[in-house]
Amino acid sequence: MIKDNRGWDELEIGSALFPFDANAQTQVEEHNDKRAYRNDSSYTASVAHWRVDKPVHNSEVCINCFNCWVYCPDSAILARDEKLAGVDYTHCKGCGVCVEVCPTNPKSLLMFSDHQSNESALANWPKKQEKNKQ
Q: Residue 49: what are its φ and ψ, rounded to 5°?
C-alpha cells in the first residue's frame, strides 16, 4: 500500500483508497458519523461546493426502501432508526443518483435549485401521476 499525498488526478486507474487509518473492521461497525475517517478521505472533505441542484427528501412519500442510501456515491443519505432521515448537504455533490433510483410515485427525492429552501420545495411537491392504461 502506497502512503503518499497524491491528488485524485495522479492515482492509477483501479486504485483502492482506504478511508481509515485504524482497524477498518472496527470502524465499519460504527455508525458513519461516529467513524474515525482519515483527514484526506472524501467523508471528511466537503464536496457541497460542486452542487448546483440538491435532492430534497419528502418523508411523507418515502417508503424507506433505502435504494437512495445504497446507491449514493457520497454516503450523503441519512438514515436513523431504520428510516431515511434526509440528506447530508455537507457531503452531497448533487449528482441526482438518489432521485434516479427512487421507486415511489411521486418520487420521495427530487432535485431542486440549491438556493431554494427545502420548505418551499416540499410545498411544491408534485402529485401522484396516474398510469396510462391502454
A: -70, -10
pLDDT, residue 67, reads: 96
Torsion angle, CA of 76/81/84/89, rounded to 10 degrees? -30
Surface-to-core class of residue 107, CB atoms within 10 Å of its CB (0-12 exposed, 13-18 middle, 19+ buried):
buried
As a whole-number percent, the residues of the chain with pLDDT over 90 amount to 49
3-state secondary structure string across the chain: CCCCCCCHHHCCCCCCCCCECCCHHHHHCCCCCCCCECCCCCCCCCCHHHCCEEEEECCCCCCCCCHHHHHCCCCCEEEECCEEEEECCCCCCCCCHHHHHCCCCCCCEEEEECCCCHHHHHHCCCCCCCCCCC
Distance CA 97, CA 118 (A): 19
The three three-digit cell numbers of residue 96, written as one number: 441526482
Confidence of residue 4 (pLDDT cuts 50, 70, 90): low
At 72-118, the pLDDT tens digits run: 988 899 998 899 999 999 889 999 999 999 999 999 999 999 999 99
